[in-house]
Amino acid sequence: MRLFGKGDLMHITRRVFFGRSVAGVGAAALATLLQGTETNSGPRRPADLRTRTPKAKRLIYLFQSGGPAQQDLFDYKPKLNECHGQQMPEHVRRGQRLTSMSSHQASIPLAGSSFKFSQHGSQGAWFSELLPHTAAIADDLCIVRSMFTEAINHDPAITFFQTGSPIAGRPSLGSWLSYGLGDSARDLPTFVVLVTANQGDQPLYSRLWGNGFLDSRHQGVRFRSGRDPVLYLSNPPGVHAASRRQMLDELAELNRLQFASELDPEIESRIAQYELAYRMQTSVPEVCDVSGEPAATFDLYGEDARTPGTFASNCLMARRLAERGVPIIQLYHQGWDHHGGLPAGIRDQARKTDRASAALVTDLKQRGMLDDTLIIWGGEFGRTSYCQGPMTPNDYGRDHHPRCFTIWMAGGGIQSGLVYGQTDEYGYNLADAHGQPLAPTKETWTPGTVHVHDLQATVLHLLGFDHERLTYRFQGRDYRLTDVHGHVVRDLIG
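Predicted structure:
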């Protein structure tokens, strides 16, 4: 069979036939997707992939990078205080791995907390004096004292919490949720990221909120402090809105031609993202302008909330974004990596975060939004019960500790007023109800303990997803956030 074209004969091969046919079908499909949408706003997002009625409509994750010391904040250990300065008993360490930063120490003395603890709420939860505002909302919180992970260094540990794998390249939690939720607020991204400015300490990489192998429209969009909260969103000098609109229309035409030729789905995403950016030129300045907030707002969050880029300001911004329909909001705050000088360092971090974290819970509750907003507060691991480096009467440090640490959650279907799990009397190992050490694994869930994948499975469940069914096929295999592990911890659900 032959086809005549411009005087040349060309055999119709399977490749030619299907290549030309698919291009035509692809162009028609794209035209159908774009038909009837305002300003050619691009393809629709995937259908909602939830398998059950969600208890939470949105997630606000207050990630505390560096590893907050649970013994100085939430996990009161009188025995540890009594044994302050003594060598850690071998029956407590049990031959477990230490990091290279403390494994060569001549001694590993136990370090009790410098801070006073008291009980709060109807369940008598223990809180350090560093957290007076968080303690005041104890009955709104679910405190999990039995988190554990495998990673013992920052980068793999943070990556594990944010992507379900210690190896870089997987989609982030927010990207998985964006993929599963489908349509979002029309004029704002589905997944917004806020990072406390000028904190230094351990680095944070954009891949922590990246889309990995998912479509690029599911990556987090970072809002920054300063005149341009989203980079390259504003029109350059001399470019007016009408010119930008004309440019986008013509660019969309070029992208349609490219899609018809290549059938690359990222081209569709490019069109959609250009259009979202155009709409964000109006919505982003409005959401970032807090001048209309009443004085009571700053009485609640603190005066730091008036300064863009602070943790307090980002907590207030999280509430404003949630009000406007953004379903996934991720805050990152660095500074908890206290290998030395812990008493002064942790006091400073608590001052920066305690009031605003509690204010966000209180603010959402007052507005009737807490019941369907899941809030998580916590870091990538905990800290050791022994001192790293020199110990003085008024100073000590703590090394990384993955075997037990504390996070808290609120709202969004979580059981409030709950303290879940416990550690041994030294705060070094997870323990059962009788105080006996546990050695849980991620493969088989042990009651009273919560692995990182268990937390992720529970978060997905609260947002309406089955963590085993929210998958994406890539390079010949199905991937999911929880890999091949994870158990929904139903004890945490109200």
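Summary: The chain has a mean pLDDT of 88.
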